[in-house]
Model the fold of this input.
Amino acid sequence: MKLTILGAIAASFLCAAAFGAEGKRIEMRSPVVPPPPAEKLPPELRVVGNRLQTVDGKEVWLQGLSVDSMQWAALGERTVHSIGVAIDEWKANCIRLAMIEDFWFGTSNQQNDGGAAYRQLVDSAVNAAASRGAYIVLDLHRFRAPEEKHVKFWQEVAEKYKNHPAVMFDLFNEPHSIDWNTWRNGGPVTDKVKPKEGVAAENQEQLRTFHAVGMQQLVDAVRATGAKNIVIVAGLDWGYDLWGVVNGYAIDDPTGNGVMYSTHVYPWKSNWQTKFLQVAEKHPLFLGEVGCPGRWEDFSFIPESQRKEKLGPGATWPMDMIGTIQKHRLNWTAFSFHPRCGPPVIKDWDYNPTDYWGVYVKDALVNGKVFEVERLR
Done:
C-alpha cells in the first residue's frame, strides 16, 4: 500500500481513516486536556539491566494498547477518548501513540494552522494518559530509515517533553531493507532490495534513494536537548529483527535513562528466540506492535510461504504470543485500538474486542489471565 500524507497506512497494514457517506473525511475534534498536577503523574522510569524501574528501584511492567489514527488524520479519530477507555476500562498502563512529522510541522494538505491543532492533540493525549498515572510512548510512525527531517522532529518533540515522567520516545516505527551499519550509523539507501533479504514487503511504499541518518544520531539528537526520557529503538525487518543489537550494533546512551529495544511481532514472523528473545535477556524489550489477524485474506501482502499459522477460531498463536510476553515480562502495546486499523483489537467504537485477537488482549489486561505457552515460533 502506498504511503501518502492523506492516507498513511498505520503499521504497514489495513488502517482506514473515517469517511462519511459522501466520501468526506469525518473530523472529530478531541477535547483539550490540561496538564495534570504533579501528584497525578506516574514515576519516572529508567533502564536497569533488562527491566524498567522507578528511581526508587520498583520494577514497572508496561502493558497496554496502540492508539492509532494520528498517522493518517491530522485531527485524529477519537484519540483522547480512546486513551481514556484504554486505561480506565481495559486497564492499560501504557499507550503507544502514532505520529508523523508532516502533521507535527503542519505541512500536510489537511492543515492550514502550521500544525498547532496537531501539537495540541499530542499534548492532550499525553495529559490524558499522564493524569491517569499511565505512560505514553510517542511513536514516529515512518518506515525504512530515518532522514534529517526526523532529527529535526525529535529535537522539537524532545525539547517539549524532556524529562516528562510519563513520556517515552519511539524513534522510528519500522526500519527495513537496510543493513545493520546503516541502521545504527546512517548512510546511503538505494531503491534496490537484495533478493537474499527475503522479507515480505509489508506495505506498498515506493522504495527510493536517499541518505539515512542512523538510530544513534536520533538518540544523540534527543540527548542534546537535555532529555533523559527512555528512548525506544526498533530493529530491522519492519521492526521485528533485533539480532544486531547483541552482535555489535547496540546503541550508546551514556547520558540518558536508557534504551529499550522494540520488536513488532505478527503471525508471519518466525524464529522468536534469535530475533528478539535473546535480546530480552540483556535489554528491556518493548513489543510496540503485536497482533493477530482474523484471516489471511485481509493481509494479501504476506506471501503464501509465510502463512504458516492457522488464523481465526481455534488459532493458538494469540495465546502462545501473550503467554510468551507474560513468561518473560516483556513490555507490550497490542495493535491496534482502532476498529479499522488491522489487525484490530476492537471491532467497533463501542470498544468491543475482536474474537480472534482482542478477547485475548482484554483477558490479559483486565482479568490478569495467564496464558500457557504451547510452543515458540
Summary: The chain has one domain: 48-366. Residues 1-13, 16-27 have pLDDT under 50 and may be disordered. Residues 106 and 256 are 29 Å apart (CA to CA).
